[in-house]
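Exam review. A common question shows you a sequence with its structure tokens and asks you to describe the fold in words. Practice with the pair below. Do the first one on your own.
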Amino acid sequence: MKDPSIEEQVASVVDRLLGRPVQNALAPAGATLDVSRPNIHDHKSEYLREKGAVDRALEGISGLLEAVLGDRSKKTPEHEAMFSRLRTVVDHGARRRLAVRRPDSTSELIRMNAIQDGLTINALQVLLDYRQELTQRLAELKVQERQFWAVKHRPANYFARAVALRLARLYAAEEGERPSYGTSRDGGHPSTEYCRALEEIYGILEIKASVKSAAKWAVNNLTDDDLKTNVSSSIGDLLTVVGGGNRENAYLTLEGAFRISDAE
């Protein structure tokens, strides 16, 4: 029997928390818990590692392109002659090496066709495309730096908080009240249904964070609108709340968390 997916495991926990009956194929399904990441890096070290790699890659590719192609505004006959000689030698050598090989995959066939067509021009075109994508990625990383990492306090676990808030909104939307949070005096284990469900979901998603801290933050960031019970009036009026509420509002709420210390 096929093991349940992560989404199915999370859905099972949510259904138990909200006391949902087992649904048949024709019944409207309850809202699902959005488990996508608001930020793909869990820690600042991961962010810095990627940004450093992109910076170095861009520097290296730009240096290679400048060395081989030269400055477009300062083309000289000498550089053109050098490029022609280099292109001839490199392309000839690649084709000679290609003659004794046979492709064993589609990607290998594409690569060999590119070499046969002319390694120098095809490689430079791919590098130009790759530089363009890396430049776009660097711009995205700079936006993430302002939103997630350029903070004075210790960065929070944004993924943990996002999941906690989404679960709290689901609970509030269906139950019409805020979920409670807390831990037992004996061992510090979650002592409420909401916190126990959150702990189980963290285990499924392999999130390492304080359940109590994330739950407390999430409940405190619920609004009056989150407490309005969603009622489906017909089969066609399906509940389509993703993540327990408006995603844009959820993101704006999370942005506010970036200025809040992660300390309990």
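Now try the second one, then compare your answer with the model answer below.
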Amino acid sequence: MGPSPKTAPISGSIPTDAMDYGDGFYITQGVEPIGEPRYCSCGPDGQKQFSNDLWQADIYIQHMKHAKANH
């Protein structure tokens, strides 16, 4: 499944290589200087959480979605 063309209000367009979780939430992947993966969980209001583990990045997205739904 490819990323959607949805736009996050503060951070701009969702990157084409991001894992799209819908509603402006997504995860990007990079590599730290020491060669470890680095994941950034991003929300539509500019929220960011960093992790070296995709599973943890997914949990951050779920927490952000839950927090947004309960506001």
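Model answer, second protein: Residues 8-16+23-69 form one domain. The radius of gyration is 12 Å. Full marks require stating both points clearly.
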